[in-house]
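The methods section describes the discrete structure representation at length, but only in general terms. What matters is that the chain and its backbone geometry are given together, residue for residue. For illustration, here is how one protein appears when written out as sequence plus structure tokens:
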Amino acid sequence: MADPLLVVVDLVLVVVAARCGGALAVRLGEPRIAGEMIGAILVGPTVLGGQIEGVVGGAVAGGTVGSLFPATSVAVLAAVGAVGMILYMLLVGMAIDPAPMARRAGTIVLLAVVVVASACAVALCAAAWLGAADGWRGPDASRAAFALALSAALAAQGVPITARILEERGLIRTALGGIVIAVGATITTLALIISGIAIRGGDPAAAAELALIVTAGAIVVAIAAPLGRSRWMRLGPRVAVAALLAIALGAGFGGKVLLGTVLVGPLVVGIAVRSAGFSAAYLEARLGRVVRGVLLPVFLGVAALHTNLRELLSGDVLAQALALLAAIVVVKTAAGFAGARAAGLPPHEATALGAMLQCGGVMTIAISLDLLHAGIITTRTHALMTLVGLVTTLIAGPLLARSGLRAPARAPLPAAVLSDS
């Protein structure tokens, strides 16, 4: 049984470390969530040493981290972090306006497919290279599942971070800002589907089974959304929020059972209920601070407890990690630029779009953690994906600045639904 006092201490430790890192990042002009990632890593095995029990199958606790974060405590933190990630994805979904996606569907699909295909190409090469060496692929994972796992994690796009960067530069309400957010949401949805196939085994049967689940979910959403337009308006505000949270939590944990991840369900629910008339600003005002200030840092802390960047420091491993990191940044940036130019965007906007779409952020880390728990990848690969998520977040802003894109002369007010992450 978990020691309540130790659970509280661990909870406070990861939240404070993440929040301090986030505050420092904001002072340095970086996204808050990048600093929160680093802060969480500081209380994990990368700095403190050791490992938590069950970080992989059969692993036993050891060192400072193992003593400070026993298995019972980690289990509680993981449950809190899962709830936080579900609510975070709900807010992300509700911040996505489906109207621009419908108006420029062709451009959005083209860009998303180009970026995902480019990431998958890098992932296939990396899977062949890394899979031949020890320590990267899970012991029971097939080569196909490993390749799909890398494809999903590397393709993922950090939509909330991108939205925040665009907001800070007065670009979120522009046509380009709408395209970036819509493309990012589409990319992330595709990445989550690929991840689900990998978790379910990576074979054609897994893909067919997942397709049936996704189709059934789409039918339910298509039926429920029109009904929601009238029902949301009839409910009192508190009842409506309670009903929405119950639906999101059910979709998240149901997705964990069916798809192996809590990320897909609440994202779809968020998009659906926004189109059904639910106020994103109303929900953001009541949940945003708790989700981003407490629950999301707990999730980052749990991810950090599974991350030991020291595993990447040996000569050959470090060279492989840096090569893959450089490749995915260059290839995704170039693919975003090329796709944007093919869609008719001018060079400076295409450069800005490429800079934003290379950002993996917390989505790369979240998908990687699911894949680690499923045994598809190892802790070393998860450490590499964490590094990819962190670095692509840190360079997104500077790359956007180099594009030369500027906000309109009369910049609009910041969107209330966007996060400070």
About this structure: Confidence is low (pLDDT under 50) at residues 411-421.
